[in-house]
Amino acid sequence: MTRRPLALSAALSLLVAVGVLAVATPASAANLLANPGFETGTLSPWSCTGGLGSVVGTPVRSGTKALQGAASSSDNAKCSQTVAVQPNTAYALTGWVRGNYVYLGIDGGASTWTPGAAAFTQLTVNFTTGASQTSVVVYTHGWYGQGTYFADDISLDGPGGTGVPGVPGNPSVGTITNTSIALSWGASSGTVTGYRVYEGTTVRATVTGTSTTITGLAACSAHTYTVAAYNASGESAKSGGVSATTTGCTTVPPTPTGLAVTGTTNTSVSLSWSASSGATGYRVYEGTTQVATGTGTTATVSGLATCSAHAYTVAAYNASGESAKSGAVSATTTGCVNTGLPKHALIGYLHASFANGSGYLRMADVPSSWDIINLAFGEPTSVTSGDIRFRQCPVAECPNVESEADFIAAIRAKQAQGKKVLISIGGANGQVQLTSTAARDTFVSSVSAIIDKYGLNGLDIDFEGHSLYLNAGDGDIRNPTTPVIVNLISALRTLKARYGSGFILTMAPETFFVQLGYQFYGGTCSGCDNRAGSYLPVIYALRNDITVLHVQDYNSGPIMGLDNQYHNMGAADFHIAMTDMLAAGFPVANTGVTFPALREDQIAFGVPAAVSAGGGYTTPAQVQQAVNCLVKNQNCGGYTLRGGTSPDFRGLMTWSINWDRYYNWEFSNSHEPFLNALP
């Protein structure tokens, strides 16, 4: 949310972690980069992603050549070079760049950038290598959709290292039997101690020569191998892969059909499917995890959480291998608590503590069309205190503000009508970082005090800005380690337990903190903002406790959907693609972990009430097109729903009720009857 109607925050500007480390001067000054000014007329030994790098004769900073990177909407034209360095040593990386959004840095370390340089501008990054570090990858790149950039005279100053060997030649396959595969490859350049043969991340063989035979394999099984060379300085990058299948195959059974949910309980889901010819057994999967196996055509998956959403596939197998997985079916265990909300709800934020240019609206004057009213905002006394305070808008800013007694009485009147009133924590100006257990405990006690004082129905989490982030290496949404994430999860679980099953918990993250996690995840990605996708572990931990997740589909840059296309805010397509990601679930970038689908009744999306309320305003017709696609699979504009239809889709959220009043109630007058008419 934003307190200032036109103070927009585009996700594009958040994607790059920018910083220059202040370290000692390099031990010596000698440019370690080959072809630093591209004067050879070729890129070598630089490599550029997407084939988007080239050497040009103009513009140049010095000499007759420079690098040109043609960044596209899907590739930032990253050009890099690997250099041997010495451990525990200071280095200085400098370069001259020109163009929009140009970056200079090292993989996994410091970087810097310029948002726009009409002429060549020098960038500098100082860093110190790690205790065992023997190589570093230097890079420069532009940004998605920002056009061409140029770079020249790039220098890495400091003492050189011995260096790891060069990358071996791609392996080739020799003799194959039922239980073995023979491999050979081209030798690496440089000093080589030996070679490691990998299958995925597992070492299958270590040899000193350039060939080996992998044995002990199963008949008719598929394998993919890569090779890396190593010496005392470290290991080279892996070669390209080669795939082979052991002999002894007969026929893999066909993919099972007719998968269906036959029953649910509080803790189990029962399934059935049609038999596959030649199958000796079946495996049931949730995502990539096998959850059941057997020889019959039914299975019951048990030990599940009450009121939790699941999606299953089934595959047949025999001695020849496993079939492809069937299409997925979804199910939700029983035992869901009746929240008292309508099937399709209208949710809005009320400027209770400020006016924001749209004018103050008394609680008693909020129309009955609003089912959840989020009081904006409870804010901390300091960023890391965890001490949340809420006050009504002061008279100087809101001359028509009601008394506290009238405010509380109006809340009671709304609740008597079946409406839910929540305290929303955070907002654009309310940075909340629970960096310690003390802050966590203060958060719980101070939020409880607000809820108790005003008799509220629950809590809305609207953490924005730098409230949530991921420490480097925190790569599993199921087991987060970053304190601000861990402490928030603990605090919300405590509040849920304190107030019981009727406690309403909603969240309003921006797309940057949720859907962007499909492409970038802050705990594992190199060179991206460590806040990318940082709500995902919180949502995952509370996936059975969240009443409604209404992502802010506004103030957002382009976001990649499950169709691997970028979608832009302000039209039905954006809301369809972003919401479908929550209904289908998605793999979290560079982690090997899947963010699971949410229940349909937990999913809503947010839009600005009017053009002045935020970037990404969407007309009522476009909003309703998106909802009809999600609920009925109608008028989806060519987009295919990966998560299937969602007849229990919870509804619509807006920033804000005040802005809706300012624009003659366009949002609520359009959408409240529309939602009520949905099946």
TrEMBL record:
Keywords: Carbohydrate metabolism, Glycosidase, Hydrolase, Polysaccharide degradation, Signal
Keyword Hydrolase: yes
Record domain Fibronectin type-III: where: 167-249, 255-336
InterPro entries per record: CenC_carb-bd, Chitinase_II/V-like_cat, FN3_dom, FN3_sf, Galactose-bd-like_sf, GH, Glyco_hydro18_cat, Glyco_hydro_18_chit_AS
Domain of life (superkingdom): Bacteria
EC number annotated for this UniProt entry: 3.2.1.14
Signal sequence, start to end: 1-29
Signal is among the record's keywords: yes
Residues of the GH18 domain: 344-678
Pfam families on file: CBM_4_9, fn3, Glyco_hydro_18
PANTHER family assigned: ENDOCHITINASE
Record family assignment: Belongs to the glycosyl hydrolase 18 family. Chitinase class II subfamily.
Name of the protein this chain belongs to: chitinase
Organism in which the protein naturally occurs: Catellatospora aurea
